[in-house]
Amino acid sequence: MKARIIKDQPDIENALYSVTHKSPTVHGFMVYKCRSCGKKWNMNLEIGVEDFGKNGRPHQPCPFIIPCECGGLAQDISGYVPYPKHRPLVFSGQKYFAYDKRGKDDACGKMSIYIEKE
Protein backbone atom coordinates (compact mmCIF):
# COMPACT_ATOMS: atom_id res chain seq x y z
CA MET A 1 0.00 0.00 0.00
CA LYS A 2 1.32 3.46 -0.90
CA ALA A 3 1.58 6.21 1.70
CA ARG A 4 -0.67 9.14 0.99
CA ILE A 5 -0.04 12.75 2.02
CA ILE A 6 -3.09 14.88 2.66
CA LYS A 7 -2.43 18.61 2.42
CA ASP A 8 -3.24 20.91 5.35
CA GLN A 9 -3.42 18.01 7.81
CA PRO A 10 -1.19 18.26 10.90
CA ASP A 11 1.54 15.71 11.52
CA ILE A 12 1.40 13.92 14.85
CA GLU A 13 4.43 14.77 17.03
CA ASN A 14 3.41 12.54 19.90
CA ALA A 15 0.26 11.21 21.49
CA LEU A 16 -0.61 14.60 23.01
CA TYR A 17 -0.30 17.33 20.36
CA SER A 18 -1.05 17.64 16.66
CA VAL A 19 1.72 19.58 14.91
CA THR A 20 0.89 22.47 12.59
CA HIS A 21 3.31 24.49 10.49
CA LYS A 22 1.02 27.42 9.69
CA SER A 23 0.63 29.94 12.49
CA PRO A 24 -3.01 30.15 13.64
CA THR A 25 -4.70 33.39 14.64
CA VAL A 26 -5.40 33.42 18.38
CA HIS A 27 -7.56 35.65 20.57
CA GLY A 28 -6.55 34.65 24.10
CA PHE A 29 -5.12 31.91 26.27
CA MET A 30 -5.63 29.81 29.38
CA VAL A 31 -2.97 28.71 31.87
CA TYR A 32 -2.80 25.01 32.75
CA LYS A 33 -0.99 23.46 35.73
CA CYS A 34 -0.16 19.78 36.16
CA ARG A 35 -1.39 18.20 39.38
CA SER A 36 1.53 15.72 39.37
CA CYS A 37 4.69 17.63 38.39
CA GLY A 38 3.52 21.22 38.96
CA LYS A 39 4.51 22.43 35.48
CA LYS A 40 2.53 25.45 34.17
CA TRP A 41 2.05 26.46 30.54
CA ASN A 42 -0.17 28.62 28.34
CA MET A 43 -2.62 27.11 25.89
CA ASN A 44 -3.51 29.72 23.28
CA LEU A 45 -7.01 29.74 21.78
CA GLU A 46 -7.56 29.77 18.03
CA ILE A 47 -10.43 31.85 16.68
CA GLY A 48 -13.67 29.95 17.40
CA VAL A 49 -12.43 28.17 20.54
CA GLU A 50 -13.90 29.64 23.75
CA ASP A 51 -14.99 32.86 22.04
CA PHE A 52 -18.75 32.14 22.04
CA GLY A 53 -19.12 33.03 18.35
CA LYS A 54 -17.79 36.60 18.67
CA ASN A 55 -15.30 36.02 15.85
CA GLY A 56 -17.62 34.53 13.23
CA ARG A 57 -17.17 30.80 13.85
CA PRO A 58 -19.50 28.54 15.80
CA HIS A 59 -18.36 28.24 19.43
CA GLN A 60 -16.21 25.29 20.49
CA PRO A 61 -15.22 24.69 24.12
CA CYS A 62 -11.78 23.54 25.21
CA PRO A 63 -11.15 20.91 27.89
CA PHE A 64 -10.86 21.94 31.54
CA ILE A 65 -8.42 19.07 32.22
CA ILE A 66 -5.77 17.88 29.74
CA PRO A 67 -2.90 15.37 29.87
CA CYS A 68 0.58 16.57 30.81
CA GLU A 69 3.77 15.33 29.17
CA CYS A 70 4.77 13.75 32.53
CA GLY A 71 1.73 11.46 32.38
CA GLY A 72 -0.28 13.40 34.94
CA LEU A 73 -3.30 15.63 34.45
CA ALA A 74 -3.28 19.42 34.16
CA GLN A 75 -6.20 21.72 34.79
CA ASP A 76 -7.07 25.26 33.81
CA ILE A 77 -6.04 27.60 36.64
CA SER A 78 -6.65 31.00 35.01
CA GLY A 79 -9.90 30.95 33.09
CA TYR A 80 -10.03 32.82 29.79
CA VAL A 81 -7.41 35.57 29.38
CA PRO A 82 -7.97 37.75 26.28
CA TYR A 83 -5.21 39.29 24.17
CA PRO A 84 -5.63 43.03 23.41
CA LYS A 85 -6.10 42.13 19.73
CA HIS A 86 -6.07 39.00 17.57
CA ARG A 87 -2.60 37.90 16.55
CA PRO A 88 -0.79 34.94 14.99
CA LEU A 89 1.48 32.71 17.05
CA VAL A 90 5.02 33.87 16.35
CA PHE A 91 7.26 31.48 18.30
CA SER A 92 7.85 27.89 17.28
CA GLY A 93 6.77 25.52 20.05
CA GLN A 94 3.73 27.50 21.21
CA LYS A 95 0.80 25.30 22.22
CA TYR A 96 -2.82 26.04 21.44
CA PHE A 97 -6.31 24.63 21.12
CA ALA A 98 -7.01 24.36 17.39
CA TYR A 99 -10.49 24.88 16.00
CA ASP A 100 -11.97 21.53 14.94
CA LYS A 101 -13.08 22.02 11.33
CA ARG A 102 -14.94 18.70 10.98
CA GLY A 103 -18.30 20.43 11.54
CA LYS A 104 -19.59 18.07 14.22
CA ASP A 105 -22.02 19.39 16.86
CA ASP A 106 -19.89 18.07 19.74
CA ALA A 107 -16.55 19.41 18.40
CA CYS A 108 -14.09 20.96 20.83
CA GLY A 109 -10.65 22.57 20.62
CA LYS A 110 -7.85 20.09 19.79
CA MET A 111 -4.49 20.19 21.58
CA SER A 112 -1.96 21.37 18.99
CA ILE A 113 1.54 22.82 18.78
CA TYR A 114 2.86 25.29 16.22
CA ILE A 115 6.29 24.30 14.86
CA GLU A 116 7.83 26.68 12.34
CA LYS A 117 9.10 24.97 9.18
CA GLU A 118 12.85 25.29 8.70
Describe this structure in words.
A hairpin with a 5-residue loop joins β1 and β2 (18-20). It contains no helices and nine strands. The protein has strands spanning 11-12, 18-20, 25-34, 40-46, 65-67, 73-76, 81-88, 94-98, 110-114. Strands 1, 2, 3, 4, 5, 6, 7, 8 and 9 form a nine-stranded mixed beta sheet that branches. It starts with 10 loop residues before the first strand and ends with a strand.
Summarize the structure.
This protein has 118 residues and is mostly beta strands.
Secondary-structure map with pairings?
Elements: E1 11-12, E2 18-20, E3 25-34, E4 40-46, E5 65-67, E6 73-76, E7 81-88, E8 94-98, E9 110-114
Parallel strand pairs: 2-9, 4-8
Antiparallel strand pairs: 1-2, 3-4, 3-6, 3-7, 5-6, 8-9
